[in-house]
Amino acid sequence: MTLFATRATAAAPDFELTSANWAQVATLCHRLDGIPLAIELAAVRVRVLGLRQILERLQDRYQLLITRRWGGSPRHRALLATVEWSYDLCTRQERLLWARASVFAGSFDLRAAEVVCSDDGIVPDEVFDVASGLVEKSVLTNQRGPDGVRYRMLDTLRQFGADRLARTRSE
User: Fold this and answer.
1) φ, ψ for residue 148 (rounded to 5)?
2) Per-residue pLDDT at 72 exceeds 80
3) Torsion angle, alpha carbons of 19, 24, 25, 29, to 10
4) DSSP labels for 12-34?
5) Which residue in 50, 85, 53 sits closest to 157, CA to CA?
6) Which of 3, 57, 103, 170 is spaced 20 to 30 Å from 26 by Cα?
7) CA 102 to CA 117: how far, in whole Å?
8) Max Cα separation, the chain?
9) Looking at the predicted structure, is the pLDDT value of residue 64 above 80?
10) Contact between residue 40 and residue 3 where contact means Cβ atoms under 8 Å apart
11) Could you tell me the pTM of the whole model?
């Protein structure tokens, strides 16, 4: 939150972190998965949007956080570029699983991934190995619980996967 407040104040000197907007800033930072670059890019948007408007527009975070102005800083394009770079490092099956697993809004277990994510390109018996590759690449995180391991994808990565899934369905 300190990072957001510092960058927002630099972008819009009249911005101030207060008890009235603290919850919105906390929600924003949480929804950005605590990724410093994403927080910085969102903070700059306080120049032209209120906190509520920024939160509403997070459904398409890449559109919100990336400037398309000529001469825009490469740093402002870095979030999407970083995620695309990670995607490019994945195998074809890992890309498929990334896109298909984006349908899970929360955590999921291996059995759910086998049922939901297997289809052309990935058979159920391959899901474990493919998911392991995504864990190694930090696309999926795992959480140990009393019922075993569950997987989760950061919202930033989940949205990227959902975008890729929508593209494959429209082709």
Assistant:
1) 115, -160
2) no
3) 150
4) -TT----TTTHHHHHHHHHHTTT
5) 85
6) 103
7) 10
8) 56
9) no
10) yes
11) 0.69
